[in-house]
Amino acid sequence: MATAALCGSRQSPEGLLGDSSPQEDEDCDPEDGDSDWGSYSSASSDYDDLEPEWLDSVQKNGELFYLELSEGEEESLLPEPPVVNHVRFSENEIIIEEDDYREGKKYEPKLKRFTKILKSKRLLPKRHNKKNSKDSGPVSILKHQSHQKTGVLVQQRYKDVSVCVNPKKLTVTKAKEQLKLLEVLVGVIHQTKWSWRRAGKQAGGERLVVHGLLPGGPAMKSGQVFIGDVLVAVNDVDVTSENIERVLSCIPGPMQVKLTFENAYAVKKEAAQPTQKKVQLNTEGDLVKLLWGEEVGGSEQKVLHTPHVVLYLTLELDSETSKEEEILYHYPASDASQKLKSVRGIFLTLCDMLESVTGTRVTSSSLLLNGKQINVAYWKESDKLLLIGLPAEEVPLPQLRNMIEDVAQTLKFMYGSLDRAFCQAENAPRVDHFFELFFQRALLPARPHGGASPGAQQYEAASAVLLDGLPGVRWLPLPQEIKVELDTALSDLEAADFAELSEDYHDMRRLYTILGSSLFYKGYLTCSHLPKDDLIDVAVYCRHYGLLPLAAKQRVGQLVIWREVFPRCHCRPPTDSDPDAFQEPEGRYFLLIVGWRHFMSCVLLEAGGCASTAVGNPGPDCVYVDQVKTALHQLQAVDCRINEQLESSPSPCLSCADWFLAGSHEKLDCLTTSPILSKLQGSSKVATSPPCRRTLFGDYSLKTRKPSPSRSSGGPDDGGEGGEGGGPSPHTTPDTERKQREADGSEESGALLKVIKKKSALLNPFHVGNLKKDLSEKELEIYNAMKLTSGPENTLFHYVALETVQGIFITPTHEDVARLGGSVHPELIKNFHRCCLSIRAVFQQTLMEEKKKAGSVADHSDSTDSASAPNPVKEHGVLFECSPENWADQKKAPPVVAYWVVGRLFLCPKVQELYVCFHDSVTEIAIEMAFKLFFGLTL
Amino acid sequence: MGEEGTEGTVHLLCLAASSGVPLFCRSSRGGAPARQQLPFSVIGSLNGVHMFGQNLEVQLSSARTEDTTVVWKSFHDSITLIVLSSEAGTSELRLERLLQMVFGAMVLLVGLEELTNISNIERLKKELRASYGLIDSLLGDSELIGDLTQCVDCVVPPEGSLLQEALSGFAEAAGTNFASLVVSGRVVVATESWWRLGTPEAVLLPWLVGSLPPQAARDYPVYLPHGSPTVPHRLLTLTLLPGLELCLVCGPRPPLSQLDPQLLERWWQPMLDPLRACLPLGPRALPAGFPLHTDILGLLLLHLELKRCLFTVEPSGDKDPSPEQRRCVLRSFYTLVTAVHFPPEPGQQEDKAEDAAQQPQVPKACYLVSGTEEPGTGWRLVALQSGPRRLLLLLSAQSPVHGLRGLATRTLHALTPLL
């Protein structure tokens, strides 16, 4: 049960393909050869009704977080067959599991019968049956064992760790107080006072939660014990806090002891809510692993030693209550955060005093802790204070400020208010998990997630600094016809007039109104019918839970998320000022996220208003889930076209910085001379190897695969179909697919670049020379249309364009960046994002002042004449020079490439931000670039 | 400036670290010294949080509200300085440097010994009163920028070599190595040894001379915060022309009386014309007729190795914006550029987190355009780094954005022989 959610999908892609074509009948399934279909048909005989596999995962409060991996992904994640596979369980626990099952049953959706009908009509996708988790009453842990043998489990619930202990060593430090033996002998720190807060007492003593590991102790040396694990047995003897000392004291001499631990995530949730939600939370725990790779151990250590803390404090002091009462929430419980927690008095005092002195809110403060600068960001709401402390080295202050705003916004989106998030006991484990993910993201941005190419990973890590803070969603511009198709699909879904769901059909009020939906493809927003604020709320939620990168690889077999949400624009308290104004109906809102393959659809539902009022904590409704799923399945046809779009050359072409690395002899005048000079210089050289020149030039729009002879003779060629024979490329595959060629092209150019670099440093990538003349006019047109920069060469390295009205931004895709490769380029991109963060901080200051000014103008017309207020900053640029990092040649100075990072802020007609990075050779006018980029940028 | 409310106020608090007794509080508002003081409870809690953190080995260094920045700094475990500023465009860098300068000023006039071993707080308070004038000038709006850049404000005299010669000769005759000519707080010429003075005193001595009320001659005891923080020296000043002073730093000899009018006349009488030519240089810094582009409204040239700077906002007539505003804009641009983009100046231990990551990416230039969307409003700022020199320009709105760097490069080229 514990990990049932992840063990399901044995669905093959072929099976899914079959789903979308209803005419394909069941009788062809056995031929599929996939055992699942067999099991499906055999098991189905036991069931008159097919329940969706996520149904068991629905929690008491109606929430659902269900993730099933796709076939291939699961296999790659399979742990090695466990060495020791011993599991301890007690009667007690089985009963708990049973409860689980029954409670889950209770949440049958009201419209389940609809599912039945749909099923019978084969309108809904076929599903394999989850025989393991369902066919025989209560699930026992032993069942899981069988699962593990088949190797489907991602995470074990129990693990055995063998450690060597030597009681002889500690004759001096004989146990003085309780639980000392555990610490000195095994190296596991368990603190009694902590556990009662979270875990509650269990019969027969307290559970032995690992609160810390003694440095150098056997447990730490083993590398398998993590904080949060629970020690359940020593040499197969059950232990609790009551008997642990007795058990350990029985160890006569140096020997190997087998410790059985319950895994951290499984425990945390269970402890908090003993009767429920093991399934869901386990899934979330696995999600961490899934997203951050398997070697959490080492990185966790690193995170543990970095001071970081989140505190939720109250400024209202009640003298009656005991110590530490002002702390409403605190995470993590590691040593590193203790120090920051202990100085909370500083934060409280500053928050209160500075606000009363200056009349404005405290935003942040900086501390020096062990020589490390720690920034603490403040977020005050009524009389509560949310604090996040992170080292300045990892998280620059502007980023931290954005982060705390995001956190507050997301928590409010999820729980309605910060108070509800932090102060309701049942939310504690979930908020813990939220911050676990949060700190993982903040402190380990470079965590690889399985499979992604290193280039894309680097890009991801480098861009997170800036992009995570932008009030927008990463958007993938698509050609009109695809857009229309997606729009139609979403509109159809939103209309919710499918026969089975119509009110007339069943003569009952519909459960939810669909307020809007949005569609993500591989983590890029492709289409959205949500209002901007909702869209951003949803996107930030997805970002926090790492859902967006999840879909980038084909890893999602099925994802269903359901929860009540509190969108800020709907949940505002009604204003009394204008009684005639539109009032949002007093409804409740639910977020449904359904993911399938590369697609992810987020749907915002409203209960109340014109739909029936929600009672209690409704779980996800099958009909809605299935409808969204069907919509996604319908979109499968578009899949490859979107993908093509994604992988084709980017709309404004990009260049790689390495192509511009000038030789050292040009270093002196590279600041002032235009590339024309170098063009002349190298023109003779260029003639010798025209194809190289072309690839070096690097403009993909120009890569029309013309055979080189025709090009050098100057005759305009119709390009494209000429094959690749002309170049020195060995890839003369008859593959005519454009995409393939693109890929080849980039490979080829990379390879060529290397060869040429070795051959002659004189060859200059600027030389367009006669190449330009050869272009037919039509080609030139295309070429110009796709180029953002002015001047003959494409000098654009990178860009980010933010459109705040629609809440979207565009930036080169991972594929684009990975394709460019290069050695200097990744560094450049990293620097670009860091620099943009600082530029954006200046813009944010401006925006704030503008807002203040607008407010003061409204109040009294004569606004005070301050130095900066009437002149908002609108453009800010920095010129950088960079050179290859390890330049071996001592005699010559390394080649240098100079590039600008320019940010431009537009206040009217709407707030837009543009960040571009381009080579220094051409002077650019940011407004023009912005016009080109923003033109036609509409959802 | 001159806003209502708390806007634009700077409060400087000085406390004895061990006892928490306030030694002095200075405030300035809208660039001028103000009497308004923080309530004692606020002073107490500001010091309290810092002290509390220190006990737990957590150094509280700064805090920000939406419009105010507070910086704490303790010196030699005996003096805690706290500054709370709500000036527009304030930043931690500016305030940290301000605190360094303020402490430098305290040492300059009182001596490090008095400040580290506080035996009698009342006496120390009395002694510190002498430094109020200098500290107030650091807090308020000044025409100089040395407090921020930590470089000596200089001017370029038209006939520098003549003056240099006269100064060297005079210094030798007077029996000291440290001599300089100062016009309204800016150094015109100075001897080699004078230029070798350490960071705080090189900036503070001319600053002190500029902040003192005019007098024909002074004999002023000073400690050199960097060179000799415990042994006092004498600062002798002689007014050659109104606003133009000759400064000497020397030991017990020579007495002021020995610098008789004859000696002065012998060296400076023939220099009268070049000296007169120096007088208008105060705010202008550059010799008249120096070719500067007409778009340039303000200029700051730093030589980071020599630690000297040229700062002027009056190269071209009195157009909008006002000189105060220009100074303010250039100051905040300098802060932005130094704190965020450019690598820290050599010889400063302010370690910024970003630098380690940015090593191979060297920033060379930077510009900033402000103003509303309609053309002709606002201004342009550009900064250029080339070798040890760093040039910051404030330009009028009619200057095209794409030409900013070219203009800066040319200007820097023209200015290079001067500094």
From TrEMBL, chain A:
<dbReference type="GO" id="GO:0009986">
    <property type="term" value="C:cell surface"/>
</dbReference>
<feature type="region of interest" description="Disordered">
    <location>
        <begin position="697"/>
        <end position="749"/>
    </location>
</feature>
<protein>
    <recommendedName>
        <fullName>Protein inturned</fullName>
    </recommendedName>
</protein>
<feature type="region of interest" description="Disordered">
    <location>
        <begin position="1"/>
        <end position="53"/>
    </location>
</feature>
<feature type="compositionally biased region" description="Basic and acidic residues">
    <location>
        <begin position="734"/>
        <end position="744"/>
    </location>
</feature>
<keyword id="KW-0217">Developmental protein</keyword>
<dbReference type="Pfam" id="PF19033">
    <property type="entry name" value="Intu_longin_3"/>
</dbReference>
<dbReference type="GO" id="GO:0007399">
    <property type="term" value="P:nervous system development"/>
</dbReference>
<dbReference type="InterPro" id="IPR001478">
    <property type="entry name" value="PDZ"/>
</dbReference>
<feature type="region of interest" description="Disordered">
    <location>
        <begin position="125"/>
        <end position="148"/>
    </location>
</feature>
<dbReference type="GO" id="GO:0001736">
    <property type="term" value="P:establishment of planar polarity"/>
</dbReference>
<dbReference type="Pfam" id="PF19031">
    <property type="entry name" value="Intu_longin_1"/>
</dbReference>
<dbReference type="InterPro" id="IPR043989">
    <property type="entry name" value="CCZ1/INTU/HSP4_longin_3"/>
</dbReference>
<keyword id="KW-0970">Cilium biogenesis/degradation</keyword>
<dbReference type="InterPro" id="IPR039151">
    <property type="entry name" value="INTU"/>
</dbReference>
<dbReference type="GO" id="GO:0060271">
    <property type="term" value="P:cilium assembly"/>
</dbReference>
<feature type="domain" description="PDZ">
    <location>
        <begin position="185"/>
        <end position="263"/>
    </location>
</feature>
<feature type="compositionally biased region" description="Low complexity">
    <location>
        <begin position="36"/>
        <end position="45"/>
    </location>
</feature>
<feature type="compositionally biased region" description="Acidic residues">
    <location>
        <begin position="22"/>
        <end position="35"/>
    </location>
</feature>
<dbReference type="InterPro" id="IPR036034">
    <property type="entry name" value="PDZ_sf"/>
</dbReference>
<dbReference type="Pfam" id="PF19032">
    <property type="entry name" value="Intu_longin_2"/>
</dbReference>
<dbReference type="InterPro" id="IPR043987">
    <property type="entry name" value="CCZ1/INTU/HSP4_longin_1"/>
</dbReference>
Automatic annotation (TrEMBL), chain B:
<dbReference type="GO" id="GO:1905515">
    <property type="term" value="P:non-motile cilium assembly"/>
</dbReference>
<dbReference type="GO" id="GO:0005856">
    <property type="term" value="C:cytoskeleton"/>
</dbReference>
<dbReference type="Pfam" id="PF19037">
    <property type="entry name" value="Fuz_longin_2"/>
</dbReference>
<dbReference type="Pfam" id="PF19036">
    <property type="entry name" value="Fuz_longin_1"/>
</dbReference>
<keyword id="KW-0206">Cytoskeleton</keyword>
<dbReference type="GO" id="GO:0016192">
    <property type="term" value="P:vesicle-mediated transport"/>
</dbReference>
<keyword id="KW-0963">Cytoplasm</keyword>
<dbReference type="Pfam" id="PF19038">
    <property type="entry name" value="Fuz_longin_3"/>
</dbReference>
<feature type="domain" description="FUZ/MON1/HPS1 second Longin">
    <location>
        <begin position="176"/>
        <end position="269"/>
    </location>
</feature>
<feature type="domain" description="FUZ/MON1/HPS1 third Longin">
    <location>
        <begin position="296"/>
        <end position="416"/>
    </location>
</feature>
<protein>
    <submittedName>
        <fullName>Fuzzy planar cell polarity protein</fullName>
    </submittedName>
</protein>
<dbReference type="InterPro" id="IPR026069">
    <property type="entry name" value="Fuzzy"/>
</dbReference>
<dbReference type="InterPro" id="IPR043971">
    <property type="entry name" value="FUZ/MON1/HPS1_longin_2"/>
</dbReference>
<dbReference type="InterPro" id="IPR043972">
    <property type="entry name" value="FUZ/MON1/HPS1_longin_1"/>
</dbReference>
<comment type="similarity">
    <text>Belongs to the fuzzy family.</text>
</comment>
<dbReference type="InterPro" id="IPR043970">
    <property type="entry name" value="FUZ/MON1/HPS1_longin_3"/>
</dbReference>
<feature type="domain" description="FUZ/MON1/HPS1 first Longin">
    <location>
        <begin position="11"/>
        <end position="138"/>
    </location>
</feature>
